[in-house]
Design goal:
Layout (H helix, E strand, L loop, with lengths): L1 H12 L9 E3 L3 E3 L2 E2 L5 E9 L5 E8 L4 E5 L3 E2 L4 E8 L5 E11 L5 E11 L5
Parallel strand pairs: 2-10, 3-10
Antiparallel strand pairs: 1-4, 4-8, 5-7, 5-9, 6-8, 9-10
Length: 125
């Protein structure tokens, strides 16, 4: 399972051939490691408008309750970027992988960012 998740992360790191037409992400996946009982671990990435049109970020979400997001709610002119923060709160031990969905008015309308990692058991004090 760990190899599968690592392989998928490696593949996603080399996605330039599959870049969306109107925007790109500063990265397409990230590894987040944590322990049960810790506060959420977070990572930041950016959505960069590469089109001539104004890009509107309509939403950033995940299907898992273990992932929450924050994002800048503003229109992006060509070359502008908006920050997105992904928070992961572990609910079980072991390997995990979750998609974070980005909705825009651009092409494509819906895109995703991948988080993965390993959650370990709580520290025994």
């Amino acid at each position: 399972m760990k190899l599968l998740i690592s392989g998928l992360g490696f593949l996603l790191a080399y996605m330039p051939a599959f870049l969306p037409k109107s925007f790109r992400l500063s990265k397409y996946s990230t590894e987040i490691n944590n322990r049960i009982g810790q506060e959420a671990s977070s990572d930041t990435f950016f959505i960069i408008n590469e089109s001539e049109e104004v890009l509107k970020v309509k939403g950033v979400s995940a299907k898992c309750g273990c992932v929450s997001t924050e994002y800048e709610k503003r229109n992006l002119a060509k070359g502008d970027s908006a920050m997105v923060i992904v928070h992961y709160t572990p609910q079980f031990t072991g390997s995990f992988g979750e998609n974070v969905y980005i909705k825009t008015n651009g092409d494509p309308k819906k895109y995703w960012f991948y988080i993965y990692g390993e959650t370990q058991a709580r520290n025994k004090d």
